Amino acid sequence: MIETLLPASLGWTLLAFLSVLWVFLGWYWGRKAKSLDGYMLAGRNVGLALGTATAVATWITSNTTMLAPQFALQLGVWGMIGYSTAALGLLLFAPMAKRIRKLMPEGFTSAEFVRLRYGRRAWSVFLVISLFYAMTWLVSMAMAGGKLLQALSGIPYAQGMTVILAVCVLYTLMGGLFAVIGTDFIQSWLILIGLVVVAVTVLWHVRVEEVHTELVTRRPLLLAVLMPAAIMAFFNNMLFGLGEVFHSNVWWSRAFAMREGVGARAYVLAAVIWLPVPVVAGFLGLAAPALDINIPSPDMAGPIVAGTLLGQAGSIVVFLLVFCSLASSIDSLLAATADLVTNDVVGGWLKPKADDAQLRRLGTWVVLILGLVTWLICLPNVGTLATVLFFAGPLVGSAIWPILLGLYSRRLDGRDATIAMVAGSLGGLAAYQWIGWYTGAIVGTGVSFLVCTGALWIRPSTFDWSRLAEHRTGRTD
Amino acid sequence: MFDVESSPARSADSPDASSTVGRAQTPPRLEVAGSGPTEGHITLVWSVDDTAGELVFELQEAPTTEFAAAQTCYTGGDRASFRSGLPAGEHAFRVRSRPQSSEAWSAWSEAVTIDIRPYPLAKAWTLFGIGAFLVVAITGYLFVASRRRNES
Question: Which residues in chain A are contacts of B127 at CB distance < 8 A?
Answer without folding.
Answer: 231-232, 235-236, 438-439, 442
